[in-house]
Amino acid sequence: MDFKSSDTITGPRSEDVLPDTATAAVKVVIVGGFGVGKTTMVGSVSEIRPLTTEETMTQAGVGVDDNRGVESKTATTVAMDFGRISITDQLVLYLFGTPGQERFWFLWNGLFEGALGAVVLVDTRRLEVSFDVIGRLEERGVPFVVAINSFPEAPRHNLDDLRRALDLPEYVPIFDCDARYRESSRDALMTLMRYLHEMTPATA
């Protein structure tokens, strides 16, 4: 294919280019049921323009997708969300948000490959959608923490009560979060990283 001199070849924005100093990268996954805020969390905390695969919801999902409690939602992730955070000049954290609808869960196999751990986002208006998500992580042996995402109209519960309702072991961190805000999303990721560090056997 011949290009004319007037053709413009575009690439990533300068702020999206991986720094030359980066020498190591780790991967974590943001998971949860449909409409719990995974795309919002990746978008709020990523230092680069996040990659999203949101598509408009159509009649094809009627009777297939469970959108109870989020009936006003008009778009959904069909593959993944992707973002990046520089932990240090050398270490980069890659974020992958999973699709929430069960019919897209077959994509989880690839998204979890090489992941250190996961943040599970939970919506207390629809607590039941989190049961299968947590069960799948436990079956895979993927370390995870649980972030209770704050929705204005969502009921508030004591974290100990939520731990019992979700049947979480005492050692799994559970905490409040607001995925709309960078600081809160960053704290959720830092909680996961501290948890993973605590799980790492000390070396002599």
TrEMBL record:
Keywords: ATP-binding, GTP-binding, Hydrolase, Nucleotide-binding. It comes from the Bacteria. SUPFAM superfamilies: P-loop containing nucleoside triphosphate hydrolases. CDD domains: Ras_like_GTPase. One of its GO terms (molecular function) is ATP binding. The keyword GTP-binding applies. InterPro entries: Gliding_Motility_GTPase (IPR052705), Gpn (IPR004130), P-loop_NTPase (IPR027417). Belongs to the GPN-loop GTPase family. PANTHER family: ATP/GTP-BINDING PROTEIN-RELATED, GLIDING MOTILITY PROTEIN MGLA. This is ATP-binding protein. It comes from Streptomyces odorifer.
